[in-house]
Amino acid sequence: MPKIQVVNMEGNPVEEIELNENIFDIDINEHAVYLVVKNILANKRQGTKSAKTRAEVRGGGRKPWRQKGTGRARQGSIRSPQWRGGGVVFAPKPRDFSYTTPKKVRRLAMKSALTSKVRENEIIVVDDIKMDEIKTKNFANMLKAIKADRKALVVVSENDKNVFNSSRNIENVKTTTANMINVYDILNYNSFIITKDALKVVEEVFN
């Protein structure tokens, strides 16, 4: 069972806790992670791109020249795809790119991502993150004290306005709640900072 040291906001060790081996010490399934990350990125797509086909471009109703006798290739419309200003062949249209992956695959991918963070020593457990006021400088000092990477994901147990607003103006730092984390964010950020309470929530959900 993996063990990890818990620190306070000043970066001082407080205690050592054991992580749930069913979540933080499994055989990493890279394919499951790939499938879920691909799904997350697909669901983020707006799907609003659009272009006009030859049927939708204005004009082109009259045949530009007669069929035979001119010496030129036959043409039926100046809005055909080969003409400048013509329609687009197989033009993209607004569509929904979202789909779902099986729940078991999502759970396996989450456990694999969390396990990778433990094995790469990129997880930092903080006993609690509390801000008396909305102060970006104080939050930045906390990240520096616990030796977090410049690109960090901070996970707390509940939506604390002071914590969220203090961190939102720091580049490459994202703060979220334990029930909103996803595989892409975990892998996309170098440091995975989580409070003890948020850790309990994660263990309850994915155990």
Textual characterization of the structure:
By secondary structure, the protein is α/β, with parallel strands linked by helices. It folds into two domains: 3-45 and 98-206, Ribosomal protein L4/L1 (Ribosomal Protein L4, Chain: A, 3-Layer(aba) Sandwich), CATH 3.40.1370; 48-96, no CATH class. It has seven helices and six strands. The chain has helices at 21-24, 30-44, 103-119, 136-145, 161-167, 183-188, 196-206, and strands at 3-7, 13-18, 123-126, 152-156, 173-177, 191-195. Strands 2-1-3-6-4-5 form a six-stranded mixed beta sheet. α2 (30-44) crosses α3 and α4 crosses α5. It is elongated, with a radius of gyration of 27 Å.
Spell out the helices and strands N to C.
EEHHHEHEHEHEH
Could you state the oligomeric state of the chains shown?
A: single chain
Q: Count up the helices.
A: 7
Shape: elongated
Summary keywords:
2 domains; alpha/beta; 207 residues; single chain; Ribosomal Protein L4, Chain: A; six-stranded mixed β-sheet
Could you write a compact summary of the structure shown?
With 207 residues, the chain is an alpha/beta fold. It contains seven helices and six strands; from the N terminus they run E-E-H-H-H-E-H-E-H-E-H-E-H.
Question: Topology of this protein?
Answer:
Layout: E1 3-7, E2 13-18, H1 21-24, H2 30-44, H3 103-119, E3 123-126, H4 136-145, E4 152-156, H5 161-167, E5 173-177, H6 183-188, E6 191-195, H7 196-206
Parallel strand pairs: 1-3, 3-6, 4-5, 4-6
Antiparallel strand pairs: 1-2
